[in-house]
Every structure is written in structure tokens, then in C-alpha cells.
Amino acid sequence: MTSETPVKSTSVPGSPSASAGTSPGPSEAEVVAPPTTTPTVDTSGPSGDEVVPPPTTNTSGPSEAEDVPPQTTNINVAEATLLEADEVEEQENVLSDGDSGVGSFQSSTASLQEELIKQRKEHGRSYKGYLEAKYLLPMDEQELERLELQNHLVWLTLDKRLYHSPVENFNRVLDVGCGTGQWTIEFADQYPGTEVIGVDLAPVQPNAIPPNLVFEVDDLEQPWTFSKKFDFIHTEAMVGALQDWPKYFRQSFEFLEPGGYLELHDVDFAVRCDDGTLPDDSAVVKWHEYMDQAADKMGFPLHIVLEFPKLMQEAGYTDISVEQIKWPMNTWPKDKKYKELGYFASENFRWGCESMSLALLTRGLGWSVDEVRVFMALLRKDFANRQLHGYWNFYVIHGRKPENVA
């Protein structure tokens, strides 16, 4: 087990506990728990009757079950590397060859059944989705561009690979929650003889796609209706999107061919720190606490990735592999690979924190849009502060359906 000290996210049972830090960061006057009696807006931080201040932090440290998914039968866990901070002022380019060419996504709505699509406007952002627009993130051009950047970050995290499962032959592949379709298109290009299906709540994929690829609009929390099974099912960044994960693992298991693999790429939404440089009263720590409270109220567990191995095992999967990789909060690590991951993780969260927060904090905790945006300004300062050595744990998890199960 690594020596990491996660910072507490208060509302979710089993979430990691906090560790006090000493480095500079927003003071208590800058980032405070919203008052419980005064409805007025406090420009130093969010306010409102609906928000309950987080309970007193527990500095006793996490249990092993809180740090990494529990190691049980047929589950192989590879824990994350302990990182050393880079104390040298940054001057060199942290990007590897080719990264500077990451471009913006030019959105093009696919020709799908538009009558099934509902779109609602909240706070100047568009939320598109099949049925009742249940997705918590907006689906406008700004968010689509962020998703492209996030996909690049995951690709770098996987050492520039699309998957880690030991699959040899692909006949039929499903991408669950395909978003802009970037992973799906790249996979279909790489395996032109494979039938590839990408499914999402919103029709935001491009029209120009490989001939072996089909995009569909559907809610895969409903009963699956595919006519044939798959050799490989891919799921990426769906924490906060799906609510009934046990059902998802049961359905994915049912629709895999014997010997087929399910692979998931996702992050545990708990900011962590190994060296005490992340203060409990910093904006980034408070943000995770508020997001946990809101997500808990709305039924979107943000730490469910820690339960994936157990849920997969209960669904029938075997040979489950768990790889834990750190996403630094910015470019603070000395190691070049993690410095680069930190660059893109910082861009992803600085760019996307408002998208991630608006629906949860306004719908779940009753904040005003102004309160959210004032708090986002403080949060972005933390993301850019290289003296704060925070990180998130990203997980690459895959499991196999046994050959003797139909």
C-alpha cells in the first residue's frame, strides 16, 4: 500500500479521510462552508440554506479498503507510484512530441432520430440527452472540446494505447457512453474488420465515420436490446453518469461472448496528497466536499470506481485486473510522464470544473449560478498552484467472462 493521504470527501460512505497541510492556499476567509441561516450571497464563497457544512475532518488516515479496491479472489491490484515533487521553476515544455497538436472538436450532429432528443437550457449551457436529459454535464461545444482533451489525457495515461485487456480477436465491440466518439472512431480505424457500436445519450458524434462503425442514441441503464453479443465492451469516464452500476455490470456480462472482456477507465473523485501540502480549507478540498454532498443527494456516487472490482466479481467476471495511476493536479511532479499527465489533468479540470459543478451544485445544493462561478475562480487558482501537490487516482480495470458461461 502506498503512503498516500487522501483528503476527505464527506458525504459518501467509505470516502477517504483528510490530512492537514501547511502550504499556502486560500485561507478560511476565502473558502468557507456556506452558512446555514443566511440566504445572501457571500462573495468570498458559496452560501445558501440548503448546504450543510462538512463535519469535522478525521485525521486518523484511511483504511486499506479506502485507498484501493480490496484484493479478493481473481482480482489483481497494481497500486500507483509514489511521486516526487519538482522544486525547479518550470521553463521547459512539458508536452511530448505531438501533444501540442491537440485541436478543438468541430461538432457535427449525427443524423439520428431527433424526435427522441430533448434539450434543456440551464445557466446558458445546453444539456442534451435521450428521454429526460438526465446527464449532469452540458453537451455544448465548449464541453465537447473538453471531452476531446480528456480523451487525450486518458490515452496518455494508458501509454498511448486504446485498451489494456489481453484481447486477441475482435469481432464485435461496444463503446458505452461514447461521447464525441473519438475513442470509438480510433478503435474502428485500427480494427477495420471489427463491427463497432458506440452508444450515448446525446447525438454529438461526427457524420464522417469509418464504415465499420455505427453510433446509436440510447440509455444503457434501461434493458439492453442488442441482437448479438460482443467480444469487448469499453466504458470510459462514466462515474457521475450511470446510477445503477450493479445493473450495468450484470447487463454487460450478459451481452459479452464467453471469454469476452469488459474494460473501464475512470477516476475516483477524491483529491489526495502524500506530503501534506494540500490544506483542508483550500478551494479544491472544499469543492470535492460540496460535490460529494450534491452527488449523494442526486444519486450519482462519485467514488463508485473503488467498488467496481467487487461489483464485477458479483456479476460473474473473473481474472479482474486493477491498475491505479495518479493524475497530478498540475505539473508539480518531477517525473516527466506525470508532469505531462498533470498538465492535461489541470487543463481538463480548470476548463471543466464549471461544467462539472453547475448541475450538481445548483440542482443538488441550491446554489445560485453566481455562487458557483465565484467559487470556480478560487478553484482554478488552486489547480494552477504548483505548491499544492494534489492528485486523483485514475483506474484501468478489466475483467473476463468465463469461457464456460453462455
UniProtKB/TrEMBL annotation:
Task: Note the SUPFAM superfamilies from the entry.
Answer: S-adenosyl-L-methionine-dependent methyltransferases
What is an annotated GO biological process for this record, any one? methylation
- Entry keyword set: Methyltransferase, Transferase
GO MF annotations for this entry?
A: methyltransferase activity
Phosphoprotein among keywords: no
Per the record, the similarity remark reads:
Belongs to the methyltransferase superfamily. LaeA methyltransferase family.
**UniProt-recorded name of the protein:** Related to methyltransferase
Q: Which organism is it from?
A: Cephalotrichum gorgonifer
